[in-house]
Amino acid sequence: MLWAITAAQIPIAAIETEANVVDQLPLKIPFDNDLNLDNFQPRPSLLQLLTEVEALLDGAGQSLFLWGQSGSGKSHLLQGVSRAIGARALYLPMTELLEYPPEAVLEGVIDCEAVLIDDIQLIVGRDDWQETLFHSFNQLKAAGIPQLYSGLAPPAQMTQVLPDLRSRWGELTVYHLPALSEDELGALLQFRAAQRGLKLSNEVVHYILSRAPRTTSALMTLLDDLDHVALAQSRSITIPLLAELKLWSPGR
Predict the structure, then answer these.
(1) Separation in Å, CA 207 to CA 132, 160, 201, 241, 243
(2) Could you tell me if 230 and 200 are in contact, meaning their C-beta atoms sit under 8 angstroms apart?
(3) Is 250 inside a domain boundary?
(4) What's CA 243's distance to the chain center, in Å?
(5) Cα-flanking dihedrals φ and ψ of residue 226, to 5°?
(6) Which of 75, 78, 143, 189 could pair with 116 in a Cys bridge, judged by C-beta atoms 3.0 to 4.6 Å apart?
(7) What count of Cα atoms within 13 Å lies in the side-chain half-sphere of residue 107?
(8) 219 pLDDT higher than 50
(9) Three-class secondary structure assignment of the chain
(10) pLDDT class for 26, splitting at 50, 70, 90?
């Protein structure tokens, strides 16, 4: 699959203003061009989850709740599913949306093919969002529209969320995305590098992991830098090149 989308413009439902004028609020949701299902590494611990995702894309109607720490791949999967479904998928990252009225954001969700809500833990302390999400959950379930949520904890542990909403999330198939081990981080580096036409030897990967921050975001940023250097200088990625670039401070 090839993707050229850089941002999705989600039409927010018309809101009646104090002057009784109906405004249409366009909301631009940024997409990371580098996140799609083709470059999501299918690590063994997630094979059952990926089977569920394939079933969802085939129209089986599964709804899922994904949880795990930052960098475990939750946002990657949600954006990948959204891209695979296309324009009728509604991807809602809560990092971008809390300042908007929830009724406006979620109005008309039953016209979508799927609704994907990322970083759901951010609604803690926001009763307005929790109540609106509860009602939208019921609408979507009644209409048979798949819902995907991601958060830092499973529904049962989100005790600061309205009990009724937490109960609804608990009805979904819940998957834990574990943090990547050092071996999995190395495999991810090589996997994503290969998709760019770069070869990273095991020695180079070990050199990187012994010095770079062990987070997926930091490693993917580093890979971007290495890709640019390799292209600009027509050089392979080797330990001497990494040492020459001085990407890490001494002793790190």
Answers:
(1) 49, 42, 10, 11, 10
(2) no
(3) no
(4) 33
(5) -65, -35
(6) 78
(7) 12
(8) yes
(9) CCCCCCEEEEEEEEEECCCCCEEEEEEEEECCCCCCHHHCCCCHHHHHHHHHHHHHHCCCCCCEEEECCCCCCHHHHHHHHHHHHCCCEEEEEHHHHCCCCHHHHHCCHHHCCEEEEECHHHHCCCHHHHHHHHHHHHHHHHHCCCEEEEECCCHHHCCCCCHHHHHHHHCCEEEECCCCCHHHHHHHHHHHHHHCCCCCCHHHHHHHHCCCCCCHHHHHHHHHHHHHHHHHHCCCCCHHHHHHHCCCCCCC
(10) low
pLDDT at 95: 93
149 or 214: which carries more pLDDT confidence? 149
User: Do 211 and 108 fall into the same domain?
Assistant: no
| Percent residues over pLDDT 90 in the chain | 64
pLDDT band (50, 70, 90) for residue 231: confident
Is 86 among the domain residues?
A: yes
Average pLDDT over residues 117-125: 97
Amino acid symbol at 225: D
Q: What band does 130 get if pLDDT is binned at 50, 70 and 90? A: very high
CATH number of the domain where residue 136 is located:
3.40.50.300
Same domain? 158 vs 214: no
Q: Which amino acid is at 237?
A: I
Structure tokens that stand for 173 in this block: 């198939």
